[in-house]
Amino acid sequence: MGLRDFVYRLYERRLEAKLANGPIPKHVGVIVDGNRRWARAMGLQDVSRGHRKGADKIDDLLVWCREAGVEIVTVWLLSSDNFNRPKEELEPLFEIIEDTVRRLVAGGWHINPMGALDLLPDHTARVLKEAKEATADRPGLIVNVAVGYGGRREIADAVRSLLQEHASKGASIEELVEVLDVEHIAEHLYTRGQPDPDLVIRTSGEQRLSGFLLWQSAHSEFYFCEAYWPDFRKVDFLRALRSYAARNRRYGC
């Protein structure tokens, strides 16, 4: 172990000690941003190598979350807005996502895909659906894998599902309007049955949600990290938890 690694390890232990008795978020959302910029900063012409490096980092994140006591992690791997990227970038990205999901299944995690799977290539959607079925009864940390995800589309899908449900019962629009409230919509989101994220982390220095968990993040705490996702370290994660623990959460203005 080099001196730098030794110093970082000491710092990690110090942060872990400070967090030992503090509040830990039950649900953490992560916008894994900066893979392409990392690849370019490293002088790589093939940006898929950045996506591959970032995908490997997810394994570390999940271990850190489990060690900290986090119960649910939502990882945004691909936005529905990303479908306008060149085909030569999307095809290897879908392959990386498939490999990542298979690895997470083999690693023993409980996988819950979320997003517009109908927009994905058939083989990618199949891998996600099979992962959900294969891990549905697993205990422990739940990993929401957001692929083809967009916050506005999620809300639209939730409303559409709600309307279909009431129509199947023979209810009219007027009857639905009389009883509709926020809980009805929440019951049809991709994360239905789960608590909303307590903490949302975004890497790469960007300070916006870009549509991530629009509905669910109404009362979330946000942490923005300068590091590109492939460079995200356990120290960065612990700093995010420290920032969360230091805040006085007020559910309102």
TrEMBL record:
Keyword annotations: Magnesium, Metal-binding, Transferase
Enzyme active site: 33, 82 (proton acceptor)
Record's keyword annotation contains Metal-binding: yes
Cofactor entry: Mg(2+)
Pfam families assigned to the protein according to its UniProt record, in alphabetical order: Prenyltransf
InterPro entries: UPP_synth-like, UPP_synth-like_CS, UPP_synth-like_sf
Binding site for substrate: 34-38, 51, 79-81, 83, 85, 202, 208-210
Family: Belongs to the UPP synthase family. Z-FPP synthase subfamily.
Record protein name field: Isoprenyl transferase
